[in-house]
């Protein structure tokens, strides 16, 4: 079984392949430029991105959207995660959370079109933002919060973990495994 993944983010593509390939689903990159709304939930944004891919003629395709949420702020940054980080970086995140509760969570949604059917699957990973945020840190391409996010149940940031451990905590893995179960039922 093969599915197209409409993304231009190589880190997301690698993670999807790492999760789905062992489950018998080959992931092929489809680097479509998709408009990302700046309001709503990650699930709603994923559905809008999926509609764009379908309008371009793809009927076996998945898209994803994700965001990090800080407990100190109502639904923020959420769907604005990439835009906010690109503008304020680690320095701004550090300042934003000074004196605030550091609990946070990642939330992601994978929307899929499969032979006339459409579905959305979500996953969450709870944790906290590290007190150690250096303004000079270099973000990993496509996953800038891994150097500062500590998943619940661990004491290390995601970046300090080998890939199998990162996958254990991954919100995207949780959504992709639900997707894989659904695809197997669809045939």
From TrEMBL:
<dbReference type="InterPro" id="IPR029001">
    <property type="entry name" value="ITPase-like_fam"/>
</dbReference>
<dbReference type="Pfam" id="PF01725">
    <property type="entry name" value="Ham1p_like"/>
</dbReference>
<dbReference type="InterPro" id="IPR002637">
    <property type="entry name" value="RdgB/HAM1"/>
</dbReference>
<comment type="similarity">
    <text>Belongs to the HAM1 NTPase family.</text>
</comment>
<keyword id="KW-0378">Hydrolase</keyword>
<dbReference type="GO" id="GO:0016787">
    <property type="term" value="F:hydrolase activity"/>
</dbReference>
<protein>
    <submittedName>
        <fullName>Non-canonical purine NTP pyrophosphatase</fullName>
        <ecNumber>3.6.1.-</ecNumber>
    </submittedName>
</protein>
